[in-house]
Amino acid sequence: MTINDVSNVFGFLGGLGMFLYGMNIMADGMQKTAGSKMSQFLSMLTNNRLMAVCLGALITAIIQSSGATTVMVVGFVSAGVLNLTQAVGVIMGANIGTTITGQLIALDIDVIAPLFAFAGVAVIMFAKNEKIKHISEIFAGLGVLFIGMGMMGDAMAPLQQSETFIGFMANFNNPLVGILIGAVFTAIIQSSSASVGILQALASTGAIPLSSAVFILFGQNIGTCITAVLASIGTKVNAKRTTVIHLMFNIIGTVLFSVICLITPFTDWIAALTPDNPVAQIANVHTTFNIVTTLVLLPFGTLMAKAAKVLLPDKEGQEEDIKRLKYIRPFENNHTVGHAAMVISQIENEVERMLQMVKKNTEGCFRAVIKNDQNMVADLEDREQYIDYLNKEISKYIVHLMTTEMTIQDSQKLNAYYRIIGDLERIGDHAINFVDYLHNMSEWDIKFSQSAIESLEQMKDLCTETLEGISKENMNGRKHVLEIAAKNEQRIDDMQESLLKGQIERMQSGKCSAEAGVILSEMLTDFERIGDHALNIAEKYEEMQM
User: What's the rounded Cα separation, in Å, for the pair 394 and 389?
Assistant: First the structure.
């Protein structure tokens, strides 16, 4: 190896480093410019496939990585925010959005690229307005990206004179070899945008014709799926199905376009659009591949979701009584875009699950006392232990998230949920107290009057009405729910005062035993405390909306 060869290798590595760094700066600037709301787009999706495609394309165009978008989708599916059918459209859109990098590279602004970099860095250093700084990051990243692109092209230019390299490239005429190399290389660097950029730099030297480059390009689309595959490890089966759909999309597209390239002059048609610009030719093939594949497969989105379910069927024997977190999954990759929205959605779903358990136990514990049913006790105590488990595990997860960087709004939501689960746990404690009263009433042969039972029943209904109001399905009416919770809590307080007064009078007249009076007083206190905690939860949800 000569000194020139070593210099070219170093030049290529330096150019690659600048290319990747520039792409990272540009993507970061786009993310910041788009605002924090961008991370919540996926959670607002409907079943409109076209909307899902557009949203996937937009997000990927901003973050410059279809892999990162798919990882986000995997997280949202795992959290239960998106269903599999919605995920199909987003993934298709992500593949379209990722082509924007190649199109930017094809703009051919090498001459003014240093000016872009200088101007962008200068503004970043001296500007005080954060919005202007973020926009400047886009231009600085774009300039550095093109400088790196030029360095890679210059370093690879001598390859077109190398007999060894020419012989090696001859193997790329075999479609399978080209696809395999493209897939493996992209899987290693985990960025289709970067691998496509390198392919464009190589094509710019004339070292590889478009007829061979297209098969490498198709393989690159398959290789980009590795990021999502890695992210799905340890997630629920539905999240794994998302990665299967991503693979299906790119494999079907690769087969389709490989056949088109072999039986039609497709590459000649693309080349004719920009005859003297091989970089643009690569970008146009990449864009055409993803748009056409999306148009072909979009009507079959539901079928692809069903196919994924067949390939990865649900596992049998997953029992609900085994203590576990159903929605929360540790997300170690910590992708900045979508991460906050995803984890908050996970917590929201887990808290809703805890709420339903608490409501069920509140009703069940009271029913056990009224019916004097000892057979219900074991299930009620098991559910109370599950509630305690959820409180502990969700709390640990929230505390962990508090150590990470989040927006003020997201931090406030975390604090609110931390307090909500504390209130839910206390409601569960007050509900399970009724089991102790059941034992005492059986031991002392105590029975309440029909009038007392009706009053207690009314207090229980007020408590469960409040808990039902703060369930997930009533999220849009939280202000109204808060008003109801406040009224119910006041009614419970009034009823407690009235019943206690009557109970004291009956005890003084000898119509009620002291033991019965104590138990009734304790039950009234528990209902009053349940009402207080339910009101606290309603207030926390109201604060989230402010």
Answer: 8
Q: DSSP class of residue 391?
A: H
Alpha-carbon distance 543 to 357, whole Å? Answer: 24
**For the chain, how are helix, strand and coil distributed in percent, rounded to 5?**
85, 0, 15
Confidence of residue 357 (pLDDT cuts 50, 70, 90): very high
Residue 176 lies in a domain: yes
362 vs 174: CA distance, rounded Å: 69
Residues 264, 349 within the same domain: no
Alpha helices in 35-108 (DSSP H): 49-63, 66-79, 84-97, 100-105
Asked whether residue 412 is assigned to any structural domain, the reply reads yes
- Vertex 102: Cα angle to 96 and 107 (nearest 5): 125
pLDDT digit string, tens, across residues 275-318:
888 888 888 999 999 999 999 998 888 888 888 888 888 665 44
Residues 262 and 372 in one domain: no
pLDDT greater than 90 at residue 53: no
Lowest mean pLDDT among 43-57, 325-339, 519-533: 325-339
Give the domain-ending residue among 256, 278, 311.
311
Domain shared by 387 and 427, yes or no: yes
What's the total number of domains in the chain?
A: 2
For the segment 127-171, what is each residue's pLDDT rounded down to a tens digit?
A: 878 778 878 887 887 778 778 766 766 776 665 556 565 555 555
CATH code of residue 456? 1.20.58.220
Return mean pLDDT, the chain: 79
Tell me the C-alpha distance between 97 and 40, whole Å. Answer: 18
Same-domain check for residues 266 and 375: no
Distance, in Å, from the CA atom of 158 to the CA atom of 202, rounded to the nearest integer, reads: 11
Which helix (DSSP H) or strand (DSSP E) does residue 309 occupy?
helix 301-311
The reply to whether 306 and 352 lie within a common domain is no
CB atoms within 10 A of CB 67: 27
Residues spanned by the domain of 479 = 336-544
Looking at the fold, whether 369 and 301 belong to one and the same domain comes out as no
pTM above 0.85, yes or no: no
